[in-house]
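User: Modeling request: complex.
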Amino acid sequence: MYTLSSFVAGLVFGVGLIVSGLVNPSKVLGFLDLAGRWDPSLALVMAGAVAVGVPAFFVAGKRAVTLLGTPMQLPNARQIDRRLVLGSLAFGIGWGLAGFCPGPALVALGAGQVKAFVFVAAMLAGMLVFEVAQRARAGTDPSVRQLTDTGL
Amino acid sequence: MHVDWASFTPWSAIIGGVIIGVAAAMLALVNGRIAGISGIVGGLLRPTANDLAWRAAFLAGLMAAPLLYAMAATLPVIVVDANYPTLIAAGLLVGAGTRYGAGCTSGHGVCGIARLSPRSLVATLIFMAAGFATVLVTRHLAGV
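Assistant: Request completed. Predicted assembly structure:
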């Protein structure tokens, strides 16, 4: 049941990315192009998603267990550190270069886009770089690993 | 600033956003997890026991979405202007950046902001600013 609901959530999420237009990099770049002919659509995607998310996460945050009775595993990290800033900066540059972020790239891959496949392969390589560096650091400092596992 | 009214799609944007929000709400309330795509993918590269199934299932659903959508309607065109070297550079930056920054557009931009996380708000402002700046450089300053 746990796995099935995760699959359905992924499916619904992907449909949302298609309907919203986020799956199309040229539309994403139109949003990021403030100095050109600006397409504000994606600001409304975020507004719509956050509007639904606020009450849902408010409820989720108050609960100790999920609707299935499993433990809530929402992140609790608070610190704003160099990793967060530099990582987000690198992500934003990559996003602006191609117009793909992780979710839409995977949906476009599912739609059979060859260029999305190339992007996702490079993205996985980038994530592996992080993993390898992380493991090297965790060897000397066990708290490092735990820090990143707390996520957001 | 010139708004491109011809490309502006407010209704599909809001409806798509609401659908994304519903999916994130589902994963949070039913699975107790954040619908952050980079985090879900990243976790697969760091296998821990009994943590793989829900991640793989979510990503399978995500990639199956075009098939479901195509049954009901025509898939929208996906236009990728970037060439292959750019796609590779972009992918590497997005992959490493989202892991170091612990999130992407979904984890920080949607879930984190909806959770009123200051960390996610900062991350979102930074990657949006970096995205705007990058497009400004590539489209207007470097003449690409």
